[in-house]
Amino acid sequence: MTETRQKDLFLDILEKNIGIILKISRAYTQSVQDKEDLINDITLELWKSFERFKGDSKISTWIYRVAINTSMNFSRKKKSDKLYFPPDLNQFESQHWILDPPDSSPSEILYQCIDELNQLNKAIILLYLDGNSHDEISEITGISKTNVGTRISRIKEQIKNLATSKI
Amino acid sequence: MELSELQNIWQEYDKKISENTRINREILRLILLEKPRKRLNWIKIKAGTWLFSPVMFVFLILILDVQFNISTRFFIGLGLFLPVYIINYIWDIKYFTLIREIDFTMPVLSIKRIIAELEKYKIKTTKIRYLLMPLAMVGFLLMIIRKITFSFDFFSILPLILIVLVFFSSMYFTFKYSIYERFKKLNKNIDEIVQLEKE
Questions:
Q1: ipTM of the prediction
Q2: Dihedral class, residue A56 (left if φ above 0, else alpha if ψ from -120 to 50, else beta)
């Protein structure tokens, strides 16, 4: 496959699944700048592993795994691998489309509740809210199906309490 | 608030994202491909720098025109400096290779365990590195000093004081937080992950 063809294919996949990357990067960062950096990191990891992706799993499973793994290691990596990009038009454009809704919106309250969870539980509830089955969550995280079920019940309760206290 | 309500909020948010991100494909290409490409090049440059550090070290010695005194003292110095340098070089390359081999397409728990183990490896090698560093420093000094003369005036002791000061400050900042605590935390994390993987 030529490089241009490969890039086009990759862009098609990104375009279709950009929502996954945006939602996960929002849950694991606090500022727009960090979110943009994390989106870059996730895309880089996806691009690096794209050649190795043979379609053994669903495309969404591959994207979820890479996005969650990169997000969980984002803060650790942030300090050692920073590269300065001068402010340019791209940055303006990117910040424009990754901006979040105002703080009072319900989705923001939901994100605030998710933010209180630990990294693994955060990943599980994001996958659950995105409509992934217990089987899929188990495949992405590596936790057994039974354990996924137990954890989701606990997280649901935790989020319910947090949401009630925030509204 | 019930979970069904939360899910409705989430679905609404999802819909909003899809509407907002119907952007120009060219912008998407620039943002999502060009920046990561630059970053990838930067990572490759960094990897190259590590790999060629011995060549750069020799180059630096040549530029600075460091004069070695080939005598018994030189060989003792070399015997102290070279093993420490080689060990450090091997550790750096090994760590870099391990980092590069991390495959983010693996399940989340496996990556968490690998990262925790890598962090443990890094702390362990840094600790030993600091213990070995004085040997390398003494070795290098023995290789370049022609005659050991020592007087107890301020200007003779100053370079030595500065070397010791820099060494200990660097050690302090690296190990500002207790290594024992960090090890304990990392081991606990690894145990928890292994337990979760078994369940």
A1: 0.72
A2: alpha
Distance, in Å, from the CA atom of B118 to the CA atom of B131, rounded to the nearest integer, reads 20
Q: Is pLDDT at A104 greater than 70 in this prediction?
A: no
Q: In angstroms, what is the C-alpha Rg of chain A?
A: 17
> Which candidate from B39, B104, B108 shows the least CB-CB separation from A141?
B108
- The reply to whether A94 and A151 lie within a common domain is no
Check whether residue A64 and residue A107 sit in a common domain: no
Best A97, A109, A128, A135 residue to mutate vs chain B (most B CBs within 10 Å): A97
The set of residues, in sequence order, having a beta carbon less than 8 Å from that of B87 and lying 6+ positions away, is B132
The per-residue pLDDT for B32 is 64
Domain residues for the domain of A113 are 101-167
Please tell me whether residues A134 and A84 are part of one structural domain. Answer: no
Q: Distance between CA B111 and CA A43 in Å, rounded?
A: 18
pLDDT of B81 higher than 90: yes
Q: What is the CATH number of the domain that holds A164?
A: 1.10.10
B residues 121-180 closer than 8 Å to A (CB): none
